[in-house]
Amino acid sequence: MAAQIFSAIFVIIVGVGGCVAYFWGANKALDTIFPSRGVKGAAAIDNLRRQGLIRPWLFVGPAMIILTIYLIYPVVETLRLSFLDRGGANFVGLANYQWAFGDREFRNSILNNIVWLAVVPAACTFLGLIIAVLTDKIWWGTIAKSLIFLPLAISFVGASVIWKFIYEYRGEGQTQIGLLNAIIQYFGGQPQVWISLPFWNNFFLMVILIWIQTGFAMVILSSALRGIPEETLEAAVIDGANPFQIFWKIMVPQIWGTIAVVWTTITILVLKVFDIVLTMTNGQWNSQVLANLMFDWMFRGGGDFGRGATIAIIIMIAVIPIMVWNIRQANKETGGH
Amino acid sequence: MAASTGKSFAGRFGVHIAVLIFVAIWTIPTLGILASSLRDKDQIIASGWWNSFASSSQTEAGRLPAASAQVEKDGKFVIQGNIFADGAARDISAFGVKSAAPTQYAAGTTADLGDGVTLQLNADGSFIMQSPKAFEGERGQRVYYASSAPPKFTTDNYDTVLFSEGIGRSFMNSLTVTIPSTVIPILIAAFAAYALAWMRFPGRALLIAVIIGLLVVPLQMSLIPLLKLYNGVGSFFGVPSKTYLGIWLAHTGFGLPFAIYLLRSYIAGLPREIMESARIDGASDFEIFVKIVLPLSFPVLASFAIFQFLWVWNDLLVAMVFLGTEGDQIVLTAKLNALLGSRGGDWEILTTSAFVTIIVPLIVFFSLQRYFVRGLLAGSVKGG
User: Fold this and answer.
1) pLDDT per residue over B108-117, tens digit each?
2) Chain B residues with beta carbon closer than 8 angstroms to that of A150
3) In terms of CATH, what superfamily is A95-334?
4) B2 lies in a domain?
């Protein structure tokens, strides 16, 4: 273990040192090749201009190279692979896509993903908004927010263990050690194996993601709520609006933009949800989702890259509208800059 | 705002209760594994963790010593001793000799087992069995008893998972993966962000648009091509394809769009006058960046560092694909996932391991929450 610590420290130093050396050295080289100090007149101006042309690329160069290798090239390659067979050797046209829409497991995943998309972003945003409004009114609101925010730091695997323990099942009449079944049994109900109840098990998995992400929605929405001008709210109170009217007719419309951002952020997350399904059910009992199905096909029977790539493309297609909207928004903001 | 709603006492009381319920729902699950990780492993399965502080009662089975332990006394053959070999302080309320009636006799009474054989089992576990004839056979008498044990807390579970289940090793692996994966992208992104914010060059706007587009590209799009690439590079150079270097670069690549986006919007907001006066004084872009921009950007660098740290530490997918699911390089999340498969019902192992994996993020989160929230706001209010 000591050896591992030393090698880790060593490699950290080499990696970080390498980065520093590159940026420092490249700049030094540029200044040496085209000196702007110590030369006179036209030559200095010429060299300054050349430096101005080259230097930005020294700065963005490493980022561009890494982005190209790790994101841009894979996107193109995944698209290409989705038209090839399992080993990536032969062109098969749309066969992978045909397979996908005929496959029972794939259709089940699409259906489940749609349910996830319909429930999780809405639940997180709604709960987050409610908690943000409520905690604003009480003196211990900050502590309450911290505690609700906390699951955001927990990994999906850790959260899955936490909730699997809550859903734990023992036969009827035995001492239940899972909290949910203990409560059900206490009130005279039948304990259930929650995560293997077809269809409903999806909701028990969604609870985990909602539990994690509500804190995120709460923090963002809470800061947006603070941005609402005090006068607007006071005017509403003077006009005799009740708390519910203030919430629905004044607050919510004012922060509509932020709600949209929270909603889309969680939507993207839901499309990629993988860890929770893998650790809770691994797609059994009709709880499969696209991201886990894709992972499955990457390795199933030595791996079928054609089908895996096809599923990735379908996830990507779902994300594209959000991507276009994001770029448009950003262009609007930086348009004048 | 406080004046606008909840004016009545009932209304305000309702708000407190509602928030209290939310807080309870959001904290109780985590409390459950923390409490269980500190409990004795037999008690975890005997009673719910919310009863941690109550005595747990359970029906157990034991076997008395075999015939070889008998002594002859006053013409009778006697076997005696204590059923709790380890001397554990437990309290027996009832016992029996048939599995169908495990609590037939109250503790301290004498049970007639037929043929003149009697057995007395006391509350403290001591027993005496007597018979007019010599006991025979290799196996002792089977007894069942209901006992209650006082609450028992222990750190044994932590000893077990850290040193014999391999969680300690995985903890180190997680650190080895996480620290470089956090530091490297910061440096690369900061230079790129400065160039994109303050330097003029052709294609800058396009580059910014590409980075914003890449922000939402699902990780799944990258996995297969990169797996092929890594395998290809590995076999071409004759090196292993699953290495720490590989996963550092992968996390760097996946973290860069957000890093550049976050840092650029912050650095672009720095006051223009500072940059210009430095330039007039003859500072080059490199000097401006190192001496002015980097120190001023500390808050946003901290925000990103926390994000990336939590992301990498909590990641399962990238680790499973690029480091594998077994062997010495396995990280905590992957190890926990493996334990869920192999130690499915052993809650003392699972809850303890889970707590070990979440403790570092929780510490980071609580000590640096301010920066985390700031990054969250900067990163998502504008983009995605």
Assistant:
1) 888 888 778 8
2) 26-27, 30, 362, 365
3) MetI-like (1.10.3720.10)
4) no
